[in-house]
Design a protein that fits this description.
By secondary structure, this protein is α+β, with helices and mostly antiparallel strands. It folds into 2 domains: about 170 residues, PAS domain (Beta-Lactamase, 2-Layer Sandwich); about 100 residues, Arc Repressor Mutant, subunit A, CATH 1.10.10. Helix content is about 60%, strand content about 15%. The protein contains 10 helices and 11 strands. The longest helix has about 55 residues. It is rod-shaped and about 130 Å long. The chain starts with a helix and ends with a strand.
């Protein structure tokens, strides 16, 4: 059966992952519109920048001479150096049109050659050549879609004789979105791990540690040691479980006290109980030898014979210096419970204790068999 700890961990991680994926999806959708707006702004800016460079490089007005486009005395038709230079500065595709026809361009067709002589799309021709307006938006450029900017070229007389174009590939948009999503994903992953660790620490401290203490207390009860109540600091529901457990301990302690009084008035019953224990194999011969040295009736009130035998058996199986924590882990009891029995054995001369000092932290008390 899957543990509660694993179920909570899976639910926590699943919720955080779902939240992160949803956030990235919404962010990607939101950024798409923002990137389109940014691309349009770039197109407008690049149109203005290129126009200024062309005016300073080639002074004079736009004109048509012998079927070619001129700027002042400089021929622009087939002037690939100009469009290549502007393309390098802006990162855009750049084209100069004479009427509707490309006469200088960095745009390339499916054959990889410059698309000289190809025509502008009909909707752009309507807006720029006929209506005399600047076109900003998506357009089909030699079979591919770009974020574009088109501006009319006017002669000295004010007639529209051509178009100047810059285009931003959709790859630019995708690169911006991808880089942004990767950045946010990295930040989101770091925050997810941090939140998961904090939540897990909180759950461990508030739920699992208190439940573990209650479980150890239940094992103490099963072995007959009922003198110690459990104390946990946790949520209200676990606190109520602690109260119910301690009330049960008090009731069993009261019943045990009455039984001890009866046993004290008739010691033969105690010897009979020890014989029954031996008959069922609860104490080994080696454990019995220590119990005989101490005396069956030598256990103080609150120490249980079966628990005593369990601890002595563990000590005999591990004949080395041990801390109360190590013994408690070995016999599956609480450290406080085990310490009572170890201190009793120390008082009776079966064990001695020493303080072990480490480089950091508090000293550890070790119990050494004699």
């Amino acid at each position: 059966m899957r543990s509660l700890k694993n179920q909570i961990l899976i639910m926590l991680l699943g919720s955080l992952v779902l939240l992160a994926v949803s956030f990235l999806g919404v962010l990607g959708w939101y950024m798409k519109d923002r990137v389109v707006a940014a691309a349009n702004i770039k197109a407008q800016t690049d149109l203005a920048t290129c126009a200024e460079i062309i005016d300073k490089t080639y002074p004079g007005s736009w004109s048509v001479q012998e079927g070619n486009l001129y700027k002042g005395s400089n021929k622009i038709s087939l002037n690939n150096d100009l469009v290549d230079h502007l393309s390098q500065l802006t990162g855009d595709t750049v084209t100069v049109f004479l009427g509707e026809k490309r006469v200088a361009t960095t745009a390339r067709g499916s054959n990889g050659e410059r698309a000289i002589g190809t025509m502008v799309s009909a909707n752009v021709a309507q807006t720029v050549l006929k209506d005399g307006q600047t076109y900003i938006g998506e357009a089909d450029v030699v079979g591919q879609w770009y974020h574009t900017g088109y501006v009319p070229l006017r002669s000295e007389m004010g007639d529209i004789i051509g178009i100047f174009y810059v285009g931003i590939s959709h790859t630019y948009e995708q690169e911006i979105i991808t880089r942004s999503l990767i950045t946010f994903a990295a930040i989101g992953l770091a925050l997810t791990i941090l939140v998961a660790l904090l939540a897990w620490f909180f759950i461990q401290r508030v739920i699992f540690y208190p439940l573990h203490n209650i479980t150890l207390g239940t094992r103490d009860m099963a072995t007959g040691h009922l003198t110690e109540k459990i104390k946990v600091h946790s949520a209200k529901e676990i606190g109520e479980l602690e109260d119910a457990f301690n009330q049960m301990v008090e009731q069993i302690q009261s019943l045990t006290g009455k039984i001890n009084q009866t046993t004290a008035s008739n010691p033969e019953n105690t010897l009979t109980e020890l014989n029954d224990t031996l008959a069922t194999g609860d104490l080994s011969l080696s454990t019995l030898s220590i119990a005989e040295n101490i005396g069956v009736e030598g256990l103080p009130k609150g120490l249980n014979q079966a628990t005593f035998g369990q601890i002595v058996q563990f000590l005999q199986a591990n004949k080395r210096p041990l801390s109360a924590e190590e013994v408690a882990e070995g016999v599956k009891l609480t450290r406080v419970t085990v310490r009572h029995y170890l201190e009793f054995l120390e008082q009776r001369g079966v064990l001695k204790s020493e303080q072990k000092y480490g480089t950091v932290g508090r000293p550890v008390k070790l119990f050494i068999p004699l």
